[in-house]
Amino acid sequence: MAVVALETTVVVTALPTIAGELDRLDLYPWVFSAYLLTSTVTVPLYGKLADVFGRRRVFLFGMVVFLAGSILCGLARSMTELVVFRAIQGLGAGAVMPSIFTVVADLYRIHERAKIQGVFSTLWGIASLVGPGLGAWLTITWSWRSVFFIGVPFGLAAVVFFICFFKERVEPRKVSLDVAGSLLLMGGLTALLLALTQGTEGPGWTSPLLLLLLAASLLMLGSFIVVERRAPDPVLPLDLFKLRVMSVSSAANFLSGAVLFGVTSYVPLFVQGARGEGAAGAGAALTPMLVTWSLSGFVGPRLLLRFGFRATAIGSTLLIALGAAGLVLVGLDAPPIVLYVSMALFGFGFGPSTSAFLILLQEAVPWSQRGVATSSTQLFRSLGGTIGVALLGSILHVSLTGRIAASGLDPSAVGSLLAPHGGSAASAAEMALRAALGGALQPVFGLIFLIAAATLLMVLVFARDVRLTRPA
Question: Taking the model in full, what pTM does it have?
């Protein structure tokens, strides 16, 4: 888990530099979205495979693919290649994280798991805390390519440890893999993501291609629902959604995923590109969130047992909404403390909310469905992040293009704002570009706040009768 956490946060602070060096800011959202898309659409299939063939095989396969993707990313020669290799990396990540949390749920009952989840959250927090600073240092000292190689030795060690020390007994049973459902889900989500990206190009949101993509997405996702109802072993059993727990958890994870990935994607871009603080500043901006996430993640499961699910969920989503509100107030001239406090509030909220929705769902289903249920939390969080990052990227592109055109600036010079070193004296043209980028990011932060507020409202309204219960 530390390998995936480290790789994710190391890369985040390097991406503005990568976009500037490879001169493809237009593909900036796709570096996130390609990873999120492949990790999202494969998660249900991996969850089903883990329930059928065991967690061990799925984990080992996923880690090997993840490491292969990391190496390829470090060797990428263009932004297009990087997007493709990030997609391969995501194929592996989609198996790793659900397998880990499913294993934890298998080994420990809820009171023990509250302590273990705290340990894992601390581990995640430490790895995430090291990541931004390490990514900035590697980018400045060596090259952005080194950030993709840093986790490879540790990932190989994890594979060896898992082979040697994790044993499980899996009862063999016949299964019919839901290949059709998996392909329809992947195709539908891909078409939707392409449609969101297409809205920023050419004729924009009224283009025939966009409408065609949306129609294809609706057709495939509709067909996916039909296939799942008839499949003997569906990749995502729709009967699970009859549980109020599943519906509430899925909706909350979807919305909070959009907030989380929106913040981690566009706050570094704002700090490095608009405020001119370089890669080190981008890493420092994420640090308060990662520190407080580590602290709150440790106590989050204990709060869940002490105060119950609804109180924990309301308190944590309220903190996320307050963090998003503070982000709206962050301008080019705002004191850094405003940004740091906002990011700290995000961390205090995400820690308890993540563990609350995960443990809640694991307690509501039997062992034979725990892999699917656990993977669904990542599915909907990543799905929200995938769609959220693409939609926010579309808003950024439209807003930035309009501001640059209105100011008569050179759009090709935007990449120069993303140099890894910050703090140097800027020309008048560069200052105008920074102002344009900062202004274009304001509606992005505004939408993040609206999504966070919707998450809080959803929990207030629909989580009244949700309880922690384990099936007999």
Answer: 0.73
